[in-house]
Amino acid sequence: MRELRSRDVRSSWIILAQPAAHLIKHFELAPEVLVICSPWEEFQANDIRDAEETFRKEVRVDPGFALVVTHDNSAETRLRPVVPDHRRYLFVRDEELRTAQDPQMFLHRLLRDALSGRHLFDLRNPATGPQFFGRERTLEGLERDLVGGHSLGVFGLRKVGKTSLLRRLAAKFREVERDAMRVLPVEVDLLEIPFNRRDIAGAAALIDRNLQHELERAKITLPGTPMTAYDRLVAVVEFVHSKFGARVTLMLDEYEALLGGKLPLRDGIELLDWLRGIAQSHPNAFNLVLAGRNSRRLAPARIEGLDNPMHRFLRSVPVSGLEPEECRTMIRKIGGRMALRFTPEALDVMVCETGGHPGLVRTLGDLVDQQVPVADRSPATVDAALVSRLLPRFSRQVDEDMRELVNASNDFSQEAIHYLTHTAHSLPWIGGRIEASIHDALVGYGILERGRTAFRIGHFGTWLRENYETPVRASHG
Q: CB neighbours of 134 closer than 8 A, spacing ≥ 6?
């Protein structure tokens, strides 16, 4: 057990405690858990702040929850607005813990009741903190490319984890001290452009707002007089590079909003043209990332008669599902926190059906979670038979997701659905060069396996066979 002292004498004690071995195994815990012991009548928001700082610094501590021992009955309700969404704070009355006849059993029941009923697979927002899994090689590649000065296009299916990946990358850049930073990341979700400002000025204002928030977070004060959003971005790029030797990386999520999705096409083209100009005039100080479903809108040299400033400008980074072992780890860890123990065979079924696509994996995992009563988790074993019984429900629940896969495939080529249906029914589709191009695109999406004609998302093949008739014969594209 390690005790960490705060500089504030009014703060509580933060203790890093080693749980019993059976608790570590039962709930998939890290070697240490964070415990906050408050001797004061009122538990303070500063204690949450100190705990979060500890989570950032201590690599051995379990990131999923903190145990708060306090005399303050109202602490949990009162401090709910300041508790981070990605972490659970378990509040326990000090008297309740002190009078427990068996502290180990008390803690076991507390974790079981608090963690098992959280529906951790059902994640609607981008994954952060302990909900983010894998992608280490992809993160390393993105970091290397951005530090090296490339501008990137990050493309992948809906719910595959593009936004989570960019947020994790931005967080990684922020982990270093300001004077040692290499990249100042500015994250912008283009879907946040206000309804009444859907033009180039509204998009620029959104970028400027997020840029100023990032400057405040990094405690960077830009010298000089007030300026426009356009002038400020250039000024920040030049100041950050001259002062810290770092570059500004602008990350634009949902790039399709610029090309007729929310803004008039001409405004979006003009904005991208301006950003490319900054990247070209400041090659060592600025680059950008565009994230979206695919590169189709950015590929042609001209878009509806207008020159495309992103043509051959972005280095393409396809994002597909998690690697099989990353996927298994995610299922084990999330399930373990809810006292669900998946057998290797159950994990194999989930990986095969979903191809490691995080959104699909979580949907199937949530169905398992709903199927097993909390009272039966001591822990509960999830076998392949249980997962297989849930596949019909899973199929109904992801029907729209499967249609989205068809639409995403057809975005690349209208011939893609023919290639997919022939593959699903184990019939050859002889399409020459277009066949190879379609196959490569579908591998990049994580729909098909690399190196062979087979479905990586196994359930998609099943869905195609159920919804599309068997082709009469082998087809030529």
A: 322, 323, 326, 327, 329, 330
Q: Is residue 282 part of a domain?
A: yes
Place of tokens 């002190």: 98
pLDDT in tens, 419-437: 999 999 988 877 666 778 8
CB contact set of 319 (below 8 Å; sequence gap of 6+): 138, 154, 155, 156, 160, 161, 162, 165
Asked, for residue 328, whether it belongs to a domain, the answer is yes
Residue 157 contacts residue 404 (beta carbons within 8 Å) = yes
pTM of the complete model beyond 0.85: no
Angle at 262 between CA 261 and CA 265, to 5 degrees: 70
Q: How many domains does the chain have?
A: 4
Distance, CA of 126 to CA of 63 (rounded, Å): 17
Residue 241 tokens read as 């590079």
Same domain assignment for residues 155 and 86: no
Q: What is the pLDDT of residues 106-119, one digit of tens each?
A: 888 888 777 766 68
Q: Which helix (H) or strand (E) holds 341?
A: strand 340-342
Task: Looking at 148-289, list the stretches that DSSP marks H as alpha helix, in order from N- to C-terminal side.
Answer: 162-174, 200-217, 229-244, 265-281
